[in-house]
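Hey, I was hoping to borrow your eyes for a little while. No rush at all, and the record is pasted right below.
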Amino acid sequence: MRTRVVSPVELTRACLERIAEVQPRLRAFVTVTAEVAVAGALAAEREIVAGNYRGPLHGIPLSVKDLFDVAGVPTTAGGGFAVEPATEDSAVAERLRSSGAVLLGKTLLHEFAFGVTSVNPHFGAVRNPWADDRIAGGSSGGSAAAVATGCGFGSIGSDTGGSIRIPAALCGVVGLKPTRGRVSLRGAVPLSWTLDHAGPLARTVRDTALLYGAIAGHDVRDPASRAAPYEDTSEELEAGATGLRIGVWEAAMAQADPPIATLARAAVETLAAAGARVSEVTLPRASELVATQLTILATDAYAFHRERFDSEPERYGEDVRARIARGRDTTGAEYAQARRVRSEVSAAFDQVLASYDAIVLPTTVVAAPRREGADAVATAARLTALTSPFNLTGLPAISVPCGLASALPVGLQLVGARWREARLLRVARAYESARGDLAWPDGSG
């Protein structure tokens, strides 16, 4: 792009053509902003020709989950309520525009981001690019499906219990949940004020790192944002695995279906062969993690939806209605106790991570479940079993493809120390490099 070998306009039109080709089958997008995207690409081209190159995202077509405001476009959040176009950009859209990126549109999600199937009663179901009868994961299912099939070069999703990492794993792409407070949530419809994270999905770790660098940083207008020290990811991204300290969470490996565990263990061996030092690790109070996270999540969700939910519960899908009702029925004492457990477990996890560059485990215990005939609530419980602990503790975590099980993608989850995204991305890139290339769905490689 910088040397004018590729035109932003050509690239944007190619992505729009790809969206038109796969959208009827995949339903990855809620809104495609074709005219705005082409106008943005033309502006980027003019700037680059004039020598005003902004950096590696300048002129690159991207999407955002329809949870983040984009000025002039409605933010449905996947819900069934009428909404007006947003009057200003969310923080992530603002930062992407500042980097010169071209916004293609907004991707479909599970209703109000409260689920992991992206089967949406108002907009239809996002289909898995690898198999039409499988879920894409969620809640950022549209983002993962779009990236996997070449409908743009990256997307911004949200993650409250695994909603970036789960669809990344099930669709065979990379998904990063940064440390809570690292990426601003201003202008995003909340699911949980205390557990939400925003982060990037892309095809490679390098692309993910570029997107992360563009959206990370303190935002004084977001009360959840933190002014923590920031490390440039480019400085050590290609430093390799030699000397890295890797902890293997064996209890998580044991929960996974055998084909998933086999691929995850093979990934650990790959890191060891590349020079990492591997040892087993135990994370404390593991039996308390999922229930504690669910108590906080459901209660926060009910607090946000309370007025509409109490007056029009029928406007919500069945599975989301059941989850919000759980939050309505949670007592103040139960919520306070869950917040206390969260503080204690977070401190304990920080102590463990002080001795490791990353902890390794599967992203999900199963590959993509079938879309039809499944209990959405039960499916969510299985798919979030190994992701939600790191929303509860706020630690950075990334899912990287590690192979196929029965022709469906499997994700390897890497968890790092708080605010150490640069080191975590180095570990992920070291694995990706040692692993080698993988196939893409539907001939989209």
About this structure: The mean pLDDT is 96. The chain has one domain: 8-443.
